[in-house]
Automatic annotation (TrEMBL):
All residue ranges annotated as the Electron transfer flavoprotein alpha/beta-subunit N-terminal domain in the record: 23-211
Function statement: The electron transfer flavoprotein serves as a specific electron acceptor for other dehydrogenases. It transfers the electrons to the main respiratory chain via ETF-ubiquinone oxidoreductase (ETF dehydrogenase).
Pfam families the UniProt entry points to: ETF (PF01012)
Species name: Salinisphaera hydrothermalis (strain C41B8)
GO annotation terms (biological process): carboxylic acid catabolic process
Protein name listed in UniProt: Electron transfer flavoprotein subunit beta
The keyword Protease belongs to this UniProt entry's keyword annotation: no
Highest rank taxon of the organism: Bacteria
Amino acid sequence: MKVLVSVKRAIDYNVRIQIKSDGSGVVTDGVKHSMNPFDEIAVEQAIRWKEAGLCDEVVAVTIGPDAAGEQLRSALAFGCDRAIHVKTEEPVQPLTAAGVFKAIAENEQPQVFLMGKQAIDDDASQTGPMTAALLGWPQATFASSIELADDSARVTREVDAGLETLDVDLPAVITTDLRLNEPRYLKLPNIMKAKKKPIESSSLDELGVAPAAALESLKTAPPPQRESGVRVESVDELVAKLKEKSLL
């Protein structure tokens, strides 16, 4: 069994986001980037399957500039066998990413394509479902538990009403949620070994993928500052304040 897993370069979740002065986006220059946390969970899950003998090969794939190779090296340090870097300097829309992943999946023929349920930079949560649609594969999103069988997978996913369990035939696209696992800490020997593992370079043109129509961001603005609270002396005063703000 082969598992394909996507990796995205994103601003590190510990970084405090700053808005550009002209409102055209967020500041990225000189800001720490790391692997999207949901993708880390996907990579961890693939490596656990490999360690348990449930899959033979794990291939990481990313789309982005040369700097995204750093996140691929992290995936290789987790234990991925090899990596594919589709290089582009332009922002990648979810539909473009799905087209790239479709082409790579058709070339690699994995039984499972694991992805993070969303990226923390745009929170779109679109690439996984779009990839499944383009491939014509079953999909299971927001997975908090995955049990693999020979030709199928049982996925427990989180929905508004609680938990839902799906049986999907393989090959399938599965997107991972926070409660699926806790990624391991990378050890220095594994980081050093990762430098010797192969990374294949490709491009949108080589894969025959045309960029999807661009979405235009009109303006980026920080959230409004929170107003200071008001101390009340009694329940009646609290109720009156809530009614005043139309909260009751």
